[in-house]
Amino acid sequence: MNMYEVILNMIDKQGPTSIPSICKKINQNSAYLEERGKPVQQAHVKSVISRKKDLFLCENEMVSLLPDKELISLTVHAGACRGPWVKINVDFTQNIFTYFEWNLEPAAAGKTFSAPNGNIYDTIISGKMDDFKQELYRLKIWNWELSYEPEGIVFDGINWSVYLDTKAKVYKSEGYQRFPNNWTRLCKALTKLTGKKFM
């Protein structure tokens, strides 16, 4: 884990934190110290924060996330014309998610239930919200274009939209059969979080 990710995780758990506290906490983490090989100095923490001005705000030695990067919720819709339609809501304030799947062919939708009247649902093992948040920061959805549309005519493709709500701003992106470069990584992260194959 990179140092900025350790700092992100710390601020996420504790709120705004002083540079000396960050340094002390990092140096108490035996796994990180073993990986790094030597204690972390305050100058190094300051350097990491100054390199990540797109994420952190530092005032009077107190470090916090920029309000437009402080995650509140994520909503992702995706579906094909003839396939299932999926909606995932992730609430970062309560650390919960909801997964909805609609399918016009229930017999083919065995992923969600075994029989329309059987009421036998899959057991789902979900991933960790902290890991998912770290991956979202790596994906930088706030840099995605507003719209991704194909150049030619497409009759059967995947329609999708992403809404990332932060403390200061809502980032929106959508497309039809055209995707941002790291779309596959978002799909993998959602699959890991929900325990259900996404796209």
How much of the polypeptide forms β-strand, as a percent range?
25-35%
The helix fraction, in percent, is 25-40%
**Rough shape?**
elongated
What order do the strands of the largest sheet run in, or round the barrel if closed?
6-5-4-8-9-7
Task: Compute the number of strand runs.
Answer: 9
Rg over C-alpha atoms, rounded to the nearest angstrom:
20 Å
Low-pLDDT stretches: 109-120
CA distance, first residue to last residue: 27 Å
Instruction: Give the averaged pLDDT, no decimals.
Output: 86
Structural class: alpha+beta
N to C succession of SSEs: HEHHHEEEEEHEEEH
- Mind describing the biggest β-sheet? 6 strands, mixed
> How many helical stretches?
6
Topology (SSEs and partners):
Layout: H1 3-14, E1 17-18, H2 19-28, H3 30-36, H4 42-51, E2 56-59, E3 62-65, E4 71-80, E5 85-91, E6 96-102, H5 129-139, E7 147-148, E8 158-166, E9 170-176, H6 183-194
Parallel strand pairs: 7-9
Antiparallel strand pairs: 1-3, 2-3, 4-5, 4-8, 5-6, 8-9
Helix pairs in contact: 5-6
Can you walk me through this structure?
This protein is of the alpha+beta class and 199 residues long. 31% of the residues lie in helices and 26% in strands. It contains six helices and nine strands. The chain has helices at residues 3-14, 19-28, 30-36, 42-51, 129-139, 183-194, and strands at 17-18, 56-59, 62-65, 71-80, 85-91, 96-102, 147-148, 158-166, 170-176. A six-stranded mixed β-sheet has the order 6-5-4-8-9-7, with no helix packed on it. A three-stranded antiparallel β-sheet has the order 1-3-2. The radius of gyration is 20 Å and the shape is elongated.
